[in-house]
Prior knowledge:
The structure holds two protein chains of two kinds.
Chain A (H helix, E strand, L loop, with lengths): L5 H16 L2 E6 L6 H12 L3 H14 L1 E7 L1 H12 L5 E4 L3
Chain B lengths: L13 E4 L2 E4 L3 H17 L6 H7 L11 H21 L4 E2 L1 H22 L4 H5 L3 H21 L6
Antiparallel strand pairs in B: 1-2, 2-3
Amino acid sequence: MAVANPDTRSIDHVDEDASHDVPYHVILWNDPVTPMQVVVLVLKRVFGFDGPTATELMLVAHEKGKVVVWTGSRDKAVHYSIQLGTAGLQSTVGRDG
Amino acid sequence: MPGGRRSAPGPLPIRRQGERIVVELPRRVRRFVEESAEAVRRSVDDPSAPAFARLYGRLDESAVHGDPLVTLERQTVIDEVCRIVTESARKDRLSDAEADAWLRVLGMAVALVAATAGLATDDDVERLDPGRARHLDLLRSLQLLVAQSLDPTLTR
């Protein structure tokens, strides 16, 4: 069985391990303009949260200014952050909540 | 994050009816929705605009910033939802996918207003000039109507 381009495979493997070893957070920031119900709905649709979970996260962001809404690989965190951003919600990706 | 509007008597102008979402909006409001999609679409192309950093700024301190794949994914989503809204703005019935695009475009339009007017606090919103305040109120009212049609369990 031929092994195609083993160098590339090795690089991919290192990147994949690194992304799994270091958890990234998606941090949702409060904003004064988006209605609370809309924030709840977007959290439910993007992350699949149930209503109480999404509502609690929205309220923490509202009261504290920000909240960690998801933790995991960097690639997924970036994807989720883009999904929030393209619904008008401000978020960042980072290692510190 | 402000609370929502109170429900008005009579049928809502955007509401779920079975598998579809009924839209009964005046022509000028539909035009407003189209213009909002156009404004969001234009904002992607202007890095010097005040809203650009708010909508498309860096996601983190790593190499994500400037990553062409991230830029491409974001641009693809924005292009797609703006296209869907432009094509469905005159329809009387929306699918859930179309309503989801409306929700996204209206959300980004709200963020555009916030960035352009420098709205960072509730007091900033209170001090908005009447014209921008009406613009923002209409966007948020439409946002809530679309949100409630997509998820009737949301509180009003």
